[in-house]
Amino acid sequence: MDRKAIVAIALSLVTLFAWTFYSQKQTERATAWRNQQRAAAEATKAATEPAETPAAAAATTAQSVVPVAPVPAANAQIENVSTPSVAYKMTNLGGGVAAAELLKHAAEKGQRMVLNEFATVPIGAVTLQPEAELQAAFTQTVDAAAGVATYERPIGDLLLTKKFQLPRAGDAEEYAFKLDVTFANRGATAMVVPGYFVHLGGVAPIHESDQPIYTGFTYHGSSKFINATWFAGGGFLGIGGGARPVFPEKPTSFSDLRWAGVANQYFSTIASPVVTATDTAGQARQRGNNVWARRYLISDPAWEKAGRTKTGTAERFGVEGALGMPGFTIEPGQSFSQTFQIYAGPREYSRLKKLGSDEEEVMDFGWFGFVSKTLLNSMNWLHARLGSYAAAIVVLTIIIKLLLWPLQNKATQSMKRMSLLAPKMTELRERHADDPQKMNAEIMKLYKDYGVNPVGGCLPMFVQIPIFFGFYNMLGKAVELRNSKFLWVHDLSQPDTIAHLPILGWPLNVLPLLMAATMFWTMAISPKSGDATQQKIFMFMPLIFVFFCYNFASALALYWTVQNLFSVVQLYATRNQAPPVLQKAPVPAKKKK
Length: 593
Fold this sequence. Notes:
With 593 residues, the protein is of the alpha+beta class. It is 35% helix and 24% strand. Helix 1 packs across helix 9 and helix 10 runs parallel beside helix 13.
């Protein structure tokens, strides 16, 4: 890659971070404005509506709001239900999935990946308030052979029943199961359920070194992943703002929420309301209308007990969340039911896309999502034929560079022509040093006279920027890369640490260092342009990229290193081409009138 492309990508990164910060502030302002408008509307309504009469109050009492019963003391009753892909631990406390062990996905120290490993809220817990009754005791009935678990709990005259149908051999999706939630009115008057929450359990980092930005909460239609650092507050660069206990900080109403989920870098739990039928009273089943999430601390003993490696003293956090559902009224002897599809498994784009409610959006590929999806599908297609993800990344990189070869050759020729103009440009700068406007006009005239495009060397940049971000987002979230080996690399989804430096304890990652070396090599043999100061500044770019990619997935450093090596080969090949001749462009003939 030439120097201009490197600079352009670095500037794009800065722009991306600045835009993210700006978008977050705008969203916060918009939310605050909506809350103010809602509060003002409610105040106006309260001031203008007549006071409630005793008769009206009695009528309102007839439709009683469901009470929140105290949580009884109880011991956990765990029932194990195994499928070909997942071992579920069902619990009566909260009534749901206490943990889901993914039998086909390895973790550290010979363990298997476990979802909801450190959280105290089971997957599929149902509460009337997001932070209440999380450990309420249910009557539990489990048929392990049929993969069915049923839970019942009375809340006053309301009977809450939940039925889990876990996946069985031959099901279309091995990580998705059904949850039927039923509210039955056993009283003599109508009951109003103002709303309820279906909990997703919690999600935790996979490794000690995982970046906290990959662990968090998200929901359908959201352009922002609520990662664990959000709850710490602090604002941009940690300046200003206090800790946030939950998300959202203020009540917010949504509409048509197709799903909500918690996710770490490679795994996710997602709940999606199934809108296919009506309840016994003819009320239509609905989408979600609210969300809730909070952060929790994972203690060192719990982390080590789970077989995770502890290498530092930094705190680690998990995030748990819930999908809020709209309220309804149940007449005496009637019931209201809602079915949910819950996915608890790897963040595989092809799997998620088949679930049917846009669950693939949990991948959060960002601005260049189309590029990331294309690269991911291409990498998986190549892997199916080569049997190695490392080989697939190398071949995919070479294919992209071959497709860009003509464009890169044209850019290299333009850079060479620019380097031939350098003495004339230096002369113009010295001659018009006191008149910048005149200097710029003369330089533009120089370009026109010699038919040189000043941005010609940047042409590949406009293609390489989306490809770089596409690779960055794809390689950082492709669960397919987990535990994939390449030479000394044990896991392409993790940094290729081979040792830690004595005393300092810093990890020694080889591929990012090779990436920097190949960048220096590319810069050394590229045609020179600009003054000496600019060239010295360019030499810092590899260091910036090393800092950016050092603790990222080694697959990204592998891609960048391969494309740098290919650029070196391309630059050496173009050296044998005849150098361009600097001559004035012919003046176009004037058209005869």
